[in-house]
Backbone:
């Protein structure tokens, strides 16, 4: 697996995660009254102001709301200036065929990346016409192969659906349905350092044994933390940065837009 940069195994790696942008074919498409392309652009501007030298961009699903080629092309165009390489994985709102069409002549959908002293594995947990996620056998095999083939690297694993509870009862049934099988693979490999996901539209940072568990705000609407039912919060859109150190430790944080106000219009359109 070739490196995607000139970084050596002695160099730290700076990544940015963008998630759940929910773009539409129309540039002014809105979700619950929020124009999603506009909020994505604002988050990108924030990234560029705060992180001028990013090594890679991870887009962890629901890039689009409508699954249109135009929306994926817009996402690709808007995010292209951010980093030397980017990788996409699908979420439950995405359409893989259209995503592939928009990613033509790129490496955006390659599932394994070696950079610095780390390996990043990106899994497809999306199930067509289903909100919950599931890792098919080929994805579990990909995970096991990627981990086993690079025992001397530290590993970051990415997927769209949450493989642990995030404390929101309404999100429990729509996470990763076969999380047990996922963890049975992960637990066999001590080089696994972190799992990163989207889908939950909120920040999350906990530890499971030696593995860091991380979720990230959406670049558009946010889900209320701890809510028993579907509820959108007034928190601002944002992104996550991750600094992967050569020794396997990582530092990470979430940054959000300042001076952001939004009142969801639940009658505008259903999420």
Residues:
């Amino acid at each position: 697996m070739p490196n995607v940069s000139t970084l050596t195994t002695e160099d730290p790696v700076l990544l940015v995660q963008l998630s759940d942008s929910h773009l539409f074919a129309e540039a002014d498409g809105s979700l619950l009254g929020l124009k999603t392309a506009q909020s994505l652009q604002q988050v990108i501007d924030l990234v560029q102001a705060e992180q001028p030298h990013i090594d890679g961009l991870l887009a962890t699903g629901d890039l689009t709301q409508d699954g249109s080629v135009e929306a994926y092309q817009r996402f690709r165009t808007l995010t292209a200036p951010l980093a030397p390489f980017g990788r996409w994985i699908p979420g439950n709102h995405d359409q893989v065929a259209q995503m592939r069409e928009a990613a033509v002549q790129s490496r955006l959908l390659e599932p394994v990346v070696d950079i610095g002293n780390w390996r990043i594995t990106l899994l497809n947990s999306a199930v067509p016409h289903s909100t919950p996620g599931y890792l098919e056998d080929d994805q579990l095999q990909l995970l096991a192969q990627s981990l086993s083939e690079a025992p001397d690297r530290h590993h970051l694993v990415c997927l769209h659906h949450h493989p642990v509870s995030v404390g929101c009862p309404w999100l429990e049934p729509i996470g990763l349905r076969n999380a047990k099988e996922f963890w049975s693979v992960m637990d066999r490999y001590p080089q696994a350092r972190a799992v990163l996901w989207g889908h939950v539209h909120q920040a999350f940072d906990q530890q499971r044994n030696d593995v860091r568990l991380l979720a990230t705000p959406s670049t558009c609407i946010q889900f209320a933390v701890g809510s028993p039912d579907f509820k959108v919060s007034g928190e601002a859109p944002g992104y996550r940065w991750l600094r992967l150190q050569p020794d396997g430790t990582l530092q990470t944080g979430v940054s959000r837009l300042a001076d952001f106000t939004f009142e969801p219009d639940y009658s505008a359109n259903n999420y």
Observations:
- The chain has one domain: 13-256.
- The domain at 13-256 is CATH 3.60.21.10 (Purple Acid Phosphatase; chain A, domain 2).
- The mean pLDDT is 95.
- The helical segments are 36-50, 69-79, 96-102, 137-149, 179-186.
